Automatic annotation (TrEMBL):
Signal peptide: none annotated. The lineage of its organism: Bacteria, Bacillati, Actinomycetota, Actinomycetes, Pseudonocardiales. PANTHER family: HTH-TYPE TRANSCRIPTIONAL REGULATOR BETI (PTHR30055:SF234), HTH-TYPE TRANSCRIPTIONAL REGULATOR RUTR (PTHR30055). This is TetR family transcriptional regulator. It comes from Saccharopolyspora thermophila. InterPro entries: Homeodomain-like_sf (IPR009057), HTH-type_TetR-like_transc_reg (IPR050109), HTH_TetR (IPR001647), KstR2_TetR_C (IPR041490), Tet_transcr_reg_TetR-rel_C_sf (IPR036271). It comes from the Bacteria.
Amino acid sequence: MSDNAGKANRRGRPGYDLGRLLDVTVRVFNERGYEGTSMEDLSQRLGITKSAIYYHVSSKDELLRLSVNRALDALFAVIEEDASRTGRAIDRLEHVVRRSVEVLVAELPFVTLLLRVRGNTKVERQALARRREFDRIVSELVEQAEAEGSIRPDVDPALTSRLLFGMVNSIIEWYRPSRGLRAEQIADAVTKIAFDGLRHERDRDLVE
């Protein structure tokens, strides 16, 4: 049996699947911290044996890797969208910010876990490296927008990038789905607040 076939069978085990396993795992990691969570903790929360967890994954590290990669893959998919790759840099940047907010809301527990990793394990260091790559791409967009004259020249591009995603990332601290706010509403608010102040005055006139 090939590795792919074996994984397909493992993930198709009746009663629960890898997706449900990750949903519960991420909640526990966020509550207790990755290092503070044991496989026994996970088995108790899931109501299954540890051997049943190992039927799906090889280790706690693999659970972490799959969880943070779910968030990272969603963010990098935003970069590949047509609106992130074509048109003026300022418009591409605004699209990336808007869609990143929507990803954060849709994958809230997974993005929360990603933003809390500190590089204490190989998996965490790999995740941080991918985050830095995403940040680099955004910073380049900011620089391109400044070069085309769409961004105020009195704001440092590196600082702009940090502030933009500082605002986006802060959503994990207060957003709760039960409060009724939709992702589109939050994205509208973030982009309006950020880009009304960020756009060069003459560029705002063009938008209006």
